[in-house]
Amino acid sequence: MSLKNSQGKRNQEQLEHKLSLYQTMVNAAVEPITLIDRNYTYRIVNHAYTEARNLKKADVLNHTVADVWGEEVFQEIIKEKLDRCFAGNVVSDVSAYEFKKNEINYVETTYTPCFPSGPEASYVVVISHNITELKRSQEKLKILAYYDSLTSLPNRPLFMDRLEQEIKYARRNRTTIAVFFLDLDEFKKINDSYGHSAGDSLLVSVGDRLTDCVRNSDTIGRSSGVIRRSQDEPSGHFSRIGGDEFTLILPNFADKKYVATVAEKIISIFNEPFQVAGREVFISTSIGIALYPDNGDTVETLLKNADTAMYRAKEAGKNTFEYYSSAMNSKAKARIKLENELRRAIDNQEFLLYYQPQYDIDTGQLVGMESLIRWKNEKMGLVSPGEFIPLAEETGMIVPIGEWVIQSACRQGKIWKDQGYGNLHLGVNLSPRQFFDPHVVEKVQGVLDSTGFDPHFLEIEITETAMLQDNDKTVHILNALKEMGVNISLDDFGTGYSSLSHLKMAHIDTLKIDQTFILNANLEGRDGAIISAIIDLGRRLKIKVIAEGVETKESLAYLKKKNCHVAQGYLFSPPLPVDEFQKLLQERESV
After folding, report:
1. In sequence order, which ranges of 351-509 are alpha helices (DSSP H)?
2. CA 483, 489, 491, 494 torsion: positive or negative?
3. Residue 82 to residue 91: CA distance in whole angstroms
4. Is the domain covering 147-325 a CATH 1.10.10.60 domain?
5. Is there a contact between 540 and 520 (Cβ–Cβ < 8 Å)?
6. Residues facing residue 126 across a β-bridge
7. Are strands 285-292 and 237-242 parallel, antiparallel or unpaired?
8. What is the model's pTM?
9. 332, 311 in Cβ contact below 8 A?
């Protein structure tokens, strides 16, 4: 044997000895460790590696990486890292592996070159660290930071980020974006009627329906992942950005008609009732839409303009959608100004009560009055109730305003009664928000106690629509008021979804025929038939019927012919301020 061969044999033996020694050392390590030579063959494999991979040592040791991982994975993923390492570089990588079926593990791997016998790297030491738990913790933190904990939809920060990215893409590619701003109609009534847990449950159901609404056509961001539609059609992202407000980003649409189609589809999913606290509840949504680039080119502008358009949808009757227009800016500013003035009006006591007299149709005697709020603002003058009452209802200011109304009306009613002006019934309107206040019965009792007004002459007026919102709660409140001696009047009868069962269960005392049936009525046609039917229904149920909006002698004659009980309207008198109504009472007494 030559000296050269002998030396080579000794070197090989030494190397094998070192590898055996290294094998013994790495077997004690808890992290998976392997040693790979320049032929891409595993020369050392420790127990932690084979256990993690659920392999036998014989299946790896002295086998190539391609044998163990498969040729495709080796060529596309691992070979490039090993080659960089053999060139003298340290390489790090984080990858997801499915070591067991349906069990994804995230592994951080470091490839380090090894130079045991010269300037060139002969081996690569591969050390892996399972970071699955860390990754899951990071994902949880990400969910907390960017997803709504209640509905699992993206939250405001993620919505803003996504819209920013969509704007950048649209700017580069000259494409379009539609931003939808959704606000649930009358959501506060759900919280007030059933409690906040029921409101939360409703929000979850709304989120689910919104997701289902676009699952087969758009992209939805949820904590569980992203569901993507065909690339040939527009995609979008729903988010919950706070309270009962949701947004949708609809990018890259070809036709504005598609935007309207999506809006109509969203509105339609609210047609079916929601199950809340074991009850069926109906709720709708109003949608505002702003378009990029027509209505803005920044996140803030698009969101603000979509919000403005949403308020326009509310004003248009709710349960609809509106596109933003520049004209809305001035209207939005006017609305903000009106809201600010209305808030100051409460503190400055700028409200007045007017009283419209009600007359017995048969005798012509004054039998009652309806109290009607007016707002006299220093800058705007006398503001129409139709202008500020819906805003007060929407913002919640109707509650303190309504409490002032009933307190003031009962106080004035007591003054007139003490002055000897007879047993006049006093009608006071309760808004839906007031009526479903959990403490409404106690508040009415408190007013009666503090003013001394006789409850038998107080008529609480509620609208037919409000009455239908929650049957059981409505009946409970009305019965509690009746036990106090208060009379119940059903206002605007015939304009809502009439339910005759309510007249029986709630023991209604008065039906008020809405003025839309009286003003400009065709008394010989359908209007007359409806009026006649309501009067006949009231008489058969022994319920007093009041006709509103009586302005002509012909209308009064028809009502008298049909045996209506009471009438009010401009034929007799417009609503009067306190001093003028006082004169009316004095004139009546002098006759």
Report:
1. 385-395, 398-418, 432-435, 440-451, 464-467, 471-483, 500-505
2. positive
3. 8
4. no
5. no
6. 34, 111
7. unpaired
8. 0.55
9. yes
Amino acid making up residue 15: L
**DSSP reduced 3-state for 520:** coil
Q: HEC profile for 129-181?
A: EECHHHHHHHHHHHHHHHECCCCCCECHHHHHHHHHHHHHHHHHHCCCEEEEE
Residue type present at position 376:
K
Domain 11-137 has what CATH class? alpha beta
Q: What does each of the 591 residues of the chain score in pLDDT, given as a tens digit?
A: 555 556 556 666 666 666 666 667 777 788 899 999 999 999 999 998 998 888 999 999 999 999 999 999 899 889 999 999 999 999 998 887 666 666 778 888 999 998 877 778 889 999 988 888 877 777 766 666 778 888 989 999 899 999 999 999 999 999 999 999 999 998 888 887 788 888 999 999 999 999 887 643 343 333 333 323 333 343 457 899 989 999 999 998 878 888 998 999 999 999 999 988 788 888 999 999 999 999 999 999 999 999 999 988 998 889 999 999 877 666 667 777 888 899 999 888 899 999 999 999 999 999 999 999 999 998 888 888 888 998 898 888 999 999 999 999 999 999 999 998 878 999 999 988 888 888 899 999 999 999 999 999 999 998 876 666 666 778 888 889 999 999 999 887 766 555 566 666 667 899 998 888 888 767 777 778 888 988 998 898 899 999 999 999 999 999 999 999 999 999 999 999 999 999 999 887 654
In angstroms, the Cα distances linking 312 to 34, 70, 397 are: 67, 61, 19
Q: Is 354-372+396-590 in CATH node 3.20.20.450? A: yes
Q: Which residues contact 83 (CB under 8 A, 6 or more apart)?
A: none
The domain limits of the chain are 11-137, 147-325, 354-372+396-590
Q: How many residues does the chain have?
A: 591
